[in-house]
Amino acid sequence: MPFELVVHAHSVLVDGAFREAWVGVDGGRIAELSSTPLEGAETVEVGADEVLIPGIVDTHVHVNEPGRTEWEGFASATRAAAAGGVTTIIDMPLNSIPATTTVAALDAKKAVATVGVDTGFWGGAVPENLGSLKPLHDAGVFGFKAFLAPSGVDEFGHLDAEQLERALDEVAELGSMLIVHAEDPGVLAAHENDGGADYHRFVQSRPHEAETTAIELVIAGVRRSGARAHILHLSSAAALPALRAARAEGLPITVETCPHYLTIAEEGIPNGATQYKCCPPIRDDANRDLLWEALLAGDIDIVVTDHSPATVELKTKGGGDFTEAWGGIAGLQLGFAAVWTEAASRGIPLSTVVGWMSRGPADLVGLSQKGRIAVGADADLVVLAPDATFVVDKNALLHKNPVSAYDGRELRGVARRAWVRGAEPGAGQLLSR
Ligand SMILES: [Zn+2]
Question: Ligand 1 centroid to 409 CA: how many Å?
């Protein structure tokens, strides 16, 4: 019997290295990996300038539907994902309305989630639902997100220090994971400024200390409770020594950073350019180099986008005033290419980048059938032209709103074709833990 699909490439990423292989797919899974030809009902020959990699897994995506679908929705987000080589996303519990802090809210989200790629959900831990996280856990969320400072939307409150401890205890008891937006509200309040268009003043309003203080609190809480924690969107390299020490101590803490922190620096951000606003902020070039070093050293585990879109109106609110514009960068379609472009310029191999952005995030959420080309894994595959380049045109992106921190940049790496469980993107499944 021939396989339903065979994909043949001279360079297939298997176990961290590229080699020639025929990938036989049956029933949405990789049924065989062979160094000699396989027979397929359909056979795809990958081009000489192309390689075959596992689909990118992005565990930090704000889809915003229902409630703020004009910011982004499941259809637009997952189309953009597939175009950027992303075959699995995990949706954040806020900026949709309702926020995903109850089973009813999760059900409301699932009811409208028509997805083109596989999609799972994080739950939220907010002051109102502490003590009752179990039903959401049982309903299949991959973990719980908490903010330690105001989240930016009224319906998703942040936890104070005592509430953080309670959340950690509860998550530990469930065997779940707390994923944390770590900025300290006291430090932020002490550095508030009157804003304006000056980007450096915006960075000063969210200093390194806001991240280091909050991360120290999480580390202490993990040490006390034994809970599994994950630090979201690390921007400040100043927090790395404490994280390194905590991990060396054996504490179960993982760390992510994002494409914009790795590929953009404060020095290149013009005043008034609020398309670059995100929290924590994009810092200086020296800090950026330290994030790359930490990734290479294994002190940062993964790179995910924190795709956090809003309408053009909100992103440019205040006419260039950084205190008024929405803080968030839409990067789902471009994150992989942006990171690969910068990595290549630093001499870092493609296999390493795919590890940070595919297998690493899949393993974070326990999706062991994703993020790898291996027998038994889901046939989530991407044909990538790693040396092909393109210039980002914000109006041509599949994100819902044409505003981009990458507009006009030349990026490297074109995802020419993708399969989600052996099929063209379009009929993604909803994933549960
Ligand atoms: Zn986020």
Answer: 23
